[in-house]
């Protein structure tokens, strides 16, 4: 009896600690129901996927895996990255629903869009 | 009599060496080979002379001059396609310095730097100081105008330029026009000159005699080489229209990191090799990125372009030369 109470006593603070930790931990795909963080891979002069759909509030991270620098520039002036060389990243959080076409301002034939819904 | 002569001329145009390659095919072949042959157009019929012979012939003739175009040095690039772009730029300068007669000046058709960083421009300036040609004219590539819409490029290279860095100058009666077609590029689009620059260009050439040889240089090709890869300029047709009246127009571009040539009436279009890394032929790869070749072959796909103006000749002679 005593042991059980003692274990239960320990369990409470441990559980609380775990809950607290869960609250401050950075969001991962396992913890969230849908992709609150989404990724676009830049490679071979293209954005992959070319169209990415994310929920409102999602953060999209572009990672340049190409051996040439690129930029990520919204055609409507909503976001604009600095030039990103190989392995560099750019992130933007989409607070409003809508369709956001963008392109690489260095190689304008590279286009993509983020659909936020 | 006239018909027989015309027949001979047609035959010459069609099959110059009796090897089944016509004039157009030969020029295309030449561009890939990068051999040291000089082709001049004399009254529309190509006449070839060996590289060395042409240079000797010019020695001492008043009015003749030569210059060298280099392009796409991409200073700061350090990926497998070329881990040492300083060395290959130096090799290009060594090639220039090995010419029997120093060129009057150099034209750099852009992508001087890889990331528009001041130290990258500094290194290029430093390396070019050792060239036998003491004057260098630049136009920017898209890699030179990355962060501030070309402001730092302009501060460094645009002292005598207008707008985003366009300008013209004259040498020995030849009129040179440097154009900027790498700014304000629109999504899904090609290179762009813009209304302000076109207006300036129209005025710039308006009062020139039709017999003035014209050389236009800009980074992105001013003809549509391969639109899928952005290898072309949206509004170049307008620029070329202003040059219609001239008997000799030579257009020198870079950007595609390989030689390509097109002749259309009085206009010869030519792109130069890079001094940094090659790129694939149109459509022959997934994308137009740096193309890796075996290390021992690298110098054979990089190069410079030697251009010679000979007074009295109809067109300028344009010759590509690899670094090794």
Description:
The complex is a heterodimer of chains A (117) and B (324). Chain A is of the alpha/beta class. The longest helix of chain A is centred in the first third of the chain and has 23 residues, at 2-24. In chain A, strands 2-1-4-6 form a four-stranded mixed beta sheet, with no helix packed on it. A four-stranded mixed beta sheet of chain A has the order 3-8-7-5, with no helix packed on it. Residues 19-33 of chain A have low confidence and may be disordered. In chain A, β1 and β2 form a beta hairpin. Chain A contains one helix and eight strands, in the order αββββββββ. Chain A has a single domain, classed as Sandwich (Immunoglobulin-like). Chain B has 324 residues and is of the alpha/beta class. Chain B has one domain (60-322): Metallo-dependent phosphatases (Purple Acid Phosphatase, chain A, domain 2). Chain B is 25% helix and 21% strand. Chain B is built from eight helices and 13 strands. Chain B has helices at 2-14, 23-33, 51-58, 85-97, 118-128, 151-157, 195-206, 236-241; strands spanning 37-42, 45-50, 65-70, 105-108, 135-138, 167-171, 174-178, 214-217, 249-253, 260-264, 267-271, 303-309, 317-322. In chain B, the strands form three sheets. In chain B, strands 6-7-8-9-11-10 form a six-stranded mixed beta sheet. In chain B, strands 5-4-3-12-13 form a five-stranded mixed beta sheet, with helices on one face. In chain B, α8 links the parallel β8 and β9. In chain B, α4 packs parallel to α5. The termini of chain B are far apart. Residues 7-21 and 28-62 of chain B have low confidence and may be disordered. Chains A and B meet through β7 of A and loops of B.
């Amino acid at each position: 009896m005593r042991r059980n109470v003692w274990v239960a006593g320990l369990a409470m603070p441990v559980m609380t600690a775990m809950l607290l930790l869960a609250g401050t931990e950075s969001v991962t795909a396992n913890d969230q129901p849908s992709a609150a963080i989404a990724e676009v891979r830049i490679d071979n002069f293209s954005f992959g996927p070319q169209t990415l759909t994310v929920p409102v509030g999602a953060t999209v991270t572009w990672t340049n895996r190409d051996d040439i620098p690129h930029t990520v520039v919204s055609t409507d002036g909503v976001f604009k990255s600095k030039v990103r060389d190989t392995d560099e990243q750019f992130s933007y959080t989409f607070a409003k629903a809508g369709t956001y076409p963008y392109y690489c301002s260095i190689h304008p034939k590279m286009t993509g869009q983020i659909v936020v819904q | 009599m006239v018909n027989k002569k015309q027949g001979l001329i047609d035959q010459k145009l069609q099959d110059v060496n009796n090897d089944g390659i016509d004039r157009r095919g030969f020029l295309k072949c030449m561009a890939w080979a990068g051999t040291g042959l000089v082709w001049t157009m004399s009254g529309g019929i190509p006449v070839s002379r060996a590289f060395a012979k042409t240079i000797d012939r010019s020695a001492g003739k008043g009015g003749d001059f030569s210059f060298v175009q280099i392009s796409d040095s991409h200073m700061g690039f350090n990926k497998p396609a070329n881990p040492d772009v300083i060395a290959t730029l130096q090799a290009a300068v060594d090639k220039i310095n090995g010419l029997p007669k120093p060129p009057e000046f150099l034209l750099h058709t852009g992508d001087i730097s890889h990331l528009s960083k001041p130290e990258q421009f500094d290194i290029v300036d430093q390396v070019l100081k050792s060239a036998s040609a003491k004057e260098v004219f630049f136009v920017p590539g898209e890699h030179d105008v990355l962060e501030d819409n070309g402001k730092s490029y302009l501060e460094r290279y645009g002292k005598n330029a207008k707008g985003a860095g366009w300008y013209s100058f004259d040498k020995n009666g030849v009129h040179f026009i440097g154009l900027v077609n790498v700014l304000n590029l629109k999504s899904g689009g090609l290179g762009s000159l813009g209304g302000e620059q076109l207006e300036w260009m129209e005025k710039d050439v308006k009062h020139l005699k039709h017999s003035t040889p014209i050389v236009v240089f800009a980074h992105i090709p001013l003809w549509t080489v391969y639109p899928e890869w952005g290898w072309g300029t949206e509004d170049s047709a307008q620029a070329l229209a202003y040059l219609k009246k001239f008997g000799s127009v030579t257009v020198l571009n870079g950007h595609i990191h390989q030689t390509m040539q097109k002749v259309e009436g009085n206009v010869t279009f030519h792109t130069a090799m890079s001094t940094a890394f090659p790129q694939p032929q149109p459509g022959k790869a997934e994308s137009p990125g740096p193309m890796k070749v075996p290390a021992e072959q690298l110098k054979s796909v990089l190069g410079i372009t030697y251009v010679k103006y000979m007074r009295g000749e109809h067109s300028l002679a344009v010759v590509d030369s690899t670094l090794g």
